[in-house]
Amino acid sequence: MNQSTRPATLAPLTGGKLVLATLAVALATFMNVLDSSIANVAIPTIAGNLGVSVDEGTWVITLFAAANAISIPLTGWLTQRVGQIKLFVWAILLFVVSSWLCGIAPNLPVLLAARILQGAVAGPLIPLSQAILLGSYPKEKSSHALALWAMTATVGPIAGPALGGWITDSYSWSWIFYINIPVGLFAAGVTWAIYRTRETPTKRLPIDKIGLISLIAWVGSLQIMLDKGKDLDWFNSPVIVALTVFAGISFAFFVIWELTEKNPIIDLRLFGGRNFLGGTIAISVAYAVFFSNLVLLPQWMQGYLNYRSVDAGLVTAPLGIFAVILAPVMAKIMPRSDARVLATLAFIGFAAVFFMRSHYTTGVDTWTLVLPTLLQGIPTALFFVPLTAIILSGLAPERIPAAAGLSNFVRVFAGAVGTSLAATGWNDRTILHHARLAEQTGITNPVFTAALDSAQAALGGSQSQAMAFFEHSMNTQAAMLGLNDIFWLSAVIFVVIIPLIWVTKPGKTNAAAAGAAGH
What we know:
Strand content: under 5%
Structural class: mainly alpha
Helix content: over 70%
Number of helices: 24
């Protein structure tokens, strides 16, 4: 639809139509957010069924996030070329198709290809869902629209792990993707029925093709390098060296090109503002630590504590409880508070939670696992919106969409990179702790030999059985110590990045844009 055939102003929706429209748009958001977390607890099962390692299975998460990050900056250009409603509906339908392809994948390469497609088409869903909802409500009720959207987006982390665990244990991991099909078809059908006459104007704009190709080149090569580094012995491998060099050259070219291009796909000049620079680095590093730990925790519980997928999901589900409860409270206190203070409190809260986890033992009980996750919901509620308010403060209204898109791109990509780095770090620290423990198992150590004799007597078997028991115990203990190191480092990182918040200066921003971009 062009500008001449579109009404100058569109009246807000009312009554049952507004309720149904809100439900449909919210379900599309829920489907997207759910899919970013539902696979976390299923990774060990997926890896086992497809005959690959858990580390390779983690690609299911990181490649989705990387593809999602790349597609986010394209949302603005695609919206102007296709139209807001058509793009939203097509994104939902393609998400449904890619979900079906994920479910029927016979091997890891096919699954990863489907996840890349799924992540790419998911890019426009969140920003468009926010924009569509804001256009459906009266301006004076925009905060209500964003509150409904935020609560839907927050329910995903609650439902995702528990639902994913239950589906994986009760049926098959394929169904964690199949459930998107009816939800997506309903959301797409209702959205088109209600909004097809409310399409936004379109115009043909040139796309920064070279910028897009270079973006895909450096993001893709960097992600592959991080994911395959451990398997290929890092920089002892010519493949890793080549990927690193290619990523570095592609990134340098990308930066130079985008800074000199008239219509860049990403406006890197935004980093010239200290609020945008400090806020974006802070939210991206924090999100990388936050998300990577959400991936590692269920893997450890399933791999070393013998938790079922559903039980691991239930342990991580309480994360969203306080986040949902405190969402309306945040909407009220934000206008009267210094966003830097709220963000600082969030980082301190995250540091405290990860410090609690760094004292886990192999005999940890379920409540000790649940408590930090439950408490983590409090800083989660204080996390996104204040930092986004900082990022967007002081920007002209016409620059806010580009700034929101760029900050979201950096944050989502940081989540993918953080997951790869955390998985590698956990593996390396586990190997180190295993080597240290093995040093104490020689026959010259009287304590060990006494324990070995005691274990052999208790097991009623041979010495080889007793040694196998000790090897299993060492593996479990080493993994626990390695993960504790990751938790402790995570706590330190949250404290160290607090000054990034305070290099910014308080300022006013578009509240609606801040709230929308924050997720």
